[in-house]
Amino acid sequence: MTKATKILLPDLVSHCTFKLRHSRHRKQITTETKKWLFKDGNLLGKSRQMYHGLKCGLLTSMTYPDAGYTQLRVVNDYLTYLFHLDNLSDDMDNRGTVSTADEVLNSLYHPRTWNSSARVGKMTRDYYKRLICTASPGTQQRFIETFDFFFQSVTQQASDRAAGVIPDLESYIALRRDTSGCKPCWALIEYAYNLDIPDEVMEHPVIRNLGEAANDLVTWSNDIFSYNVEQSKGDTHNMICVVMNEEGLDLQSAVDFVGDMCKQSIDRFNEERSRLPSWGPEIDRDVSVYVNGLADWIVGSLHWSFDSERYFGKSGRKVKSSRVVELLPQRR
């Protein structure tokens, strides 16, 4: 069987009908976060070039378009730091994700008393001290808990990768919902818009299902977009590889399979949105803002994936139009 040299991406952009919006603070937050990130010699050489190609300020601008400057800046600092967590933790003797988690989580649970010289700890305390100035107690708790889940799942992913394990689809989906890092970003929707939604409302099945559907779309589409770079490195922790292994599909059929799952997650989001109950005018207003924030993440992440250089280099616009991706050679 001839080895595939290209894949055709599913047309997720057309399937998503949510309005794409931008924040007027984009340029300002990009400039300020850059100063913050590069402080004390952070990110040199190739890592610095990758930062510019990432265009994280654009992602923040499209996923929190109505947030005020102060909140948007904290969100952008966090998202940028999340993308570069590996680089920021490289002064910790490469002891892996467990030591990084210790630094980050201690900085979150004890922002005023935990002291460490590690850059990742310093940066965590810095943005979190700003976040807790206005974030509700429930928002703070959800942010920390879901970030804790993120590190637990990333540690499991690193273990699977080292052992060459390709999980089954059900296990992969459960793990990927945490390795995506989306759940803390959902808590940041609450923070960005100064929401104070009661815990029992946030735990309602419809609200949880909406968050899950948005997470699935962002995460599974990311697996499609990042597949080319990952396959060139021999990384199999990707839904396309999982589907090929479990369903016995060829590459393009697996891409189509995951693409259909992405489309179904958008449909699922719309269906759950139509089922939202009422908790009274004040809570309903906050819930509406929160759910709109999830929709902004769905549409914003899709468009940003082609604007960023993270997945398609300088060819993002061309790929967005043609949907054709030429596969990179595998590194030996």
UniProtKB/TrEMBL annotation:
<dbReference type="GO" id="GO:0010333">
    <property type="term" value="F:terpene synthase activity"/>
</dbReference>
<keyword id="KW-0460">Magnesium</keyword>
<keyword id="KW-0479">Metal-binding</keyword>
<dbReference type="InterPro" id="IPR008949">
    <property type="entry name" value="Isoprenoid_synthase_dom_sf"/>
</dbReference>
<dbReference type="GO" id="GO:0046872">
    <property type="term" value="F:metal ion binding"/>
</dbReference>
<comment type="similarity">
    <text>Belongs to the terpene synthase family.</text>
</comment>
<protein>
    <recommendedName>
        <fullName>Terpene synthase</fullName>
        <ecNumber>4.2.3.-</ecNumber>
    </recommendedName>
</protein>
<dbReference type="GO" id="GO:0008299">
    <property type="term" value="P:isoprenoid biosynthetic process"/>
</dbReference>
<dbReference type="Pfam" id="PF19086">
    <property type="entry name" value="Terpene_syn_C_2"/>
</dbReference>
<dbReference type="InterPro" id="IPR034686">
    <property type="entry name" value="Terpene_cyclase-like_2"/>
</dbReference>
<keyword id="KW-0456">Lyase</keyword>
